[in-house]
Amino acid sequence: MPDRLSALDASFLYLEDSATPMHVGGVAVFDRPRAGFDYEDLLALVGQRLAFLPRYRQRVLAVPGHLARPVWVDDVDFDLNYHVRRSALPAPGSDEQLFDLVARLMSRRLAPERPLWEAYFVEGLAGDRVALVTKTHQSVVDGVGTIEIGQLILDAAPQETEQAEDTWAPRRQPSRSQLMLDAVSETVQRPGELVENVRSAAADVVATAGKFSDTLGGVASALRTMARPAPSGPLNVPVSGGRVFATVRTKLADYRKVRADHGGTVNDVVLAAITGALREWLLSRGSALTPATTLRALVPMAVRDADAAEYSGVGLVGNQVDAYLVDLPVGEPNPVLRLQHIGHAMAEHLDSGRSVAARALLRVGGFAPATLHSLGARAAGSFSDRIFNLVITNSPGPQEPLYAGQARMTEMYPVIPLVRNQALAIGVTSYHGGVYFGLNGDRKALSDVDVLAGMIEESLEELKGAHW
C-alpha cells in the first residue's frame, strides 16, 4: 500500500500559500572548536544520520485528479548539497544580521517537488561562531516516525564526523496508473474520502482543517471550552509574505526566583513575562486598555497518554499535544496579579492529569525541544484563526551542553510559523541555564518586533523586583 499523507499532514500542504509557508524553523549558534567545524563537517554529519529518518529523502507526489491524498515517495534525484546549504555574513557578522537573514529564509516556501526541509550553515559571525538555520515542513514532523532535522545532528558529547558510505537506493516512483489504481481501491473501501479529497484540493480547506484537529489529542476539548472569538487587535491582520525575527536571551535562574517568590511554575512566569511585554507594546501603539483587556494565546503543551507507561517516549511525544487557549491579562497593571491570573488559568490544564512536567520531558530519551515546537505548530495549524491572537510554544530543553560534531551549541531559538491573520508567533526554549525566545512576526504588521523583544526582558525584570 502507498505511504499516504495523513489528513492532517495533507491539510498543511493545502493551507500553505506564499504568505503563510507552513514550515517550522530553528536557529542554533555554535562556538567553532579549535579543530574547526565547517560546511563539509556539517554535510558529513547530516549524511551520517539521514539513514535514521527516511522521510528526509522523500517528497510529496500528488494523485491525478485528487482522487486521494498525496503519497510520500523516494526522491530519485535526492541531492544532499541542495538541502544543506552554505551561507555567510560579512565578517564580523552581528546577531542582528544573522536574524535578518533568518527572517528572509523563513519567508520563502520550501520547494514542493523536493523533500520538504532545508538547513543553512552560516559563517562569518563575530567571535568565531557559526550558526545552523533549519526549516522543516509541518507535514514532515510527527514526533514518532520523524523528528525535527535539528534534533538529528545534536549529541550530548563531542563526536567525530567522518564521511560515511551512502548505500541508500531510492525505490522506484509509482506510475500515474498505479497511483490512480491505489486511490480507487481505497475509495471502494472508504467512498466518503473521495468527496473530501476533492473538496480539500479545491481550496475549501479552512472548513476541512477543523475536521483534522482531533488527530492531536485535546484540541477538540479546548475548542469546546473557549469557542468564543478572540479579542480583536493589532496582532490579527492579514499576513504578508515578509517576516521579521527577533530574539531574547534570559537566565533560567531568574524565572525560578520569581516562581519561588510568587508561586506558579516556570512556564507561568514565562507567560507572565510575555504578557507584560505585550501590555507595554500595546500601550506604545496607543491601544486603549482596561483592567479586563486580554489577548488570547494558543499554548501547545505535551501531554501523557493515560494508557502509556510513565516517561514512555511514545506516550509523551507521539501526537499527544494539547493546544490550550489562555487569556493573557494584558490590561492588568500589577505584574504579580498577571502571574496569578495566568497560574489559575494554567492550573486547570495541569490538574487534568495529562500534562507533562518539564522534569518528565527531560527524562525521555531522544526528546528534543525542536520536535515539540514542531508538534505545537501542527496543533496551532489545526485551529481556526479567529479564536486566538498569537501562538506561544514553550519547551524545556536539556540543561547540559549539546554538540554538533565537536562544536558546542551556545544558543537555540525556535521559529514558529505564522498562520492566516496572526502576525506574531513566539517560541521559547530553555537550554543549559538559559531561556531563549524567538519572535517571528509579519514584516508589515510587526516591523517593531525588536522593541517587543526588549520589553520581554523589561517585563521579567519587573517580575523579579515585584513585592507582594
TrEMBL record:
InterPro entries noted in UniProt: Acyl_transf_WS/DGAT, O-acyltransferase_WSD1-like, O-acyltransferase_WSD1_C, O-acyltransferase_WSD1_N
EC code(s) of this entry: 2.3.1.20
Pfam families assigned: WS_DGAT_C (PF06974), WS_DGAT_cat (PF03007)
The protein's annotated pathway: Glycerolipid metabolism; triacylglycerol biosynthesis; Lipid metabolism
O-acyltransferase WSD1-like N-terminal domain mapped to chain residues: 5-270
Keyword list, A-Z: Acyltransferase, Glycerol metabolism, Lipid biosynthesis, Lipid metabolism, Transferase
Catalytic activity: an acyl-CoA + a 1,2-diacyl-sn-glycerol = a triacyl-sn-glycerol + CoA
Family statement drawn from the similarity comment of this UniProt entry: Belongs to the long-chain O-acyltransferase family.
This protein's name: Diacylglycerol O-acyltransferase
